[in-house]
Specification:
Layout lengths: L3 H15 L8 E4 L10 H8 L4 E5 L5 H6 L6 E6 L1 H7 L3 H11 L9 E6 L11 H17 L7 E3 L1 E3 L19 H14 L3 E4 L2 H7 L6 H4 L7 E2 L5 E2 L2 H15 L9 E6 L14 H16 L13 E4 L40 H8 L9 E4 L5 H11 L22 H15 L13 E4 L14
Parallel strand pairs: 1-2, 1-11, 2-3, 3-4, 4-5, 6-7, 7-10, 10-11
Antiparallel strand pairs: 8-9, 12-13
Helix pairs in contact: 4-6, 5-6, 6-7, 13-14
Length: 458
Amino acid sequence: MASSLQLFILPLLFLLLLKPPQNVVGVGINYGTLGTNLPSPKRVAQLLQSTIINKVKIYDTNPEILDAFSNTGIDLIVAVENYHVSNISTGASSADEWLATRVLPFIPATSIVAIVVGNEYLTTDKLDPKALVQAMQNLHAALLARGLERKIKVSTPHSMAVLASSFPPSSSTFVPDLIPTMKSILGFLAETGAPFMVNAYPYFAYRSNPDSVDIEYALLGNTTRVRDPKDYVYTNMLDAQIDAVRSAVNDLGFGNGSLQITVSESGWPSKGVPGDMAATPENAKTYNTRLIERAQFNKGTPMKPKDNIEVFVFALFNENKKEGGVTERNFGMFNGDGSKVYEVDLSCQFCSNAASFEKMSSGVARGPSVWCVAKPHADEKVLQAVVDFCCGPGGVDCREIYKSGDCFKPEKIHAHASYAMNAYYQMHGRNYWNCDFKGTGLVTFSDPSYGTCRYPQQ
């Protein structure tokens, strides 16, 4: 009979494994498609699997992209276009119809983790702020009715223009006319556990005032020190922009909760109009390299040093059909033909086993069955904890991944964790939350069995 201590520890261990991850393993990227001769979505998905990119944000619900990212282990954030927000705001049925046609056909094979409603909607002319709030509420209600509200969050990305001012950070507030709408949005995000998203670009702030801003401060360098009146010291502008948003959020009474801030876009252009001395490949490389390092190490800000700030780099590709000036079309790390605009290290220390895993699961036809496997990008330490849980308190029979078992080889933690995860998932009814494991699990329609190693199915 289990001791009282064991009875207390086992449920606690279970909850720790199933709750959302506290650290960002990889980096997010914005994937726009307003360009000619871009690689196919399938090719893009294949290439990103061997990188640190573990989340991709797109600007619509392009079915070719959603299908391409199925069974890749990469999370997707999809979007309701600005022009479509008004329609979704009209009622629950409109939101549910959008969800049923644009999202549901692709899950769970494609890991869609968020829906962003519009993009910089509140600072775009002639759009109704009330429609944005109602559309967000309607979509969440549709997700709730289908039991998907824990897996898929609803938010909306803002530009820095929603702030009345951004410096000093500790004194920042929202534009007065937007405060009623912001209160509604913040209340919704706090209630549903979704992040506040902001598109933050030190480049534009520097370009507007190059004589007053040190370019190293804008490029995330650590040499400049800017002191806030409340004694916060900033070594780069992005931190100051994030804390400016934080102050505005706090000013409306939402500073004491668990509301997270996500940088939904940030990047630096490699080319600009004549006379723009800042938009160069060298500066773009410097900024994005430092931005990626910041995201990987989960650095906080002076106001909240222990906060994990999720970051989505803008952007994957240069988009030569995008409206606006030269700058707008040259934020990509890659050209339309797939060649690099400049060198940025996207290699992934946790992806060494991805190729062998893909080999194991390739060539198997899809069917009505589903399995649970480890994401190729998953941290090996977390996966080891998953194996320990599943093969211990989780009750899984793990003899097949021991030395004499048919699934012992390849002797890789990703392979062993996939077997253990799947056995646990099948045992507990194949609910999507039983394949979460701190964000390291992935539901797939492709049978991961290989050779004499057979993965159980319900």
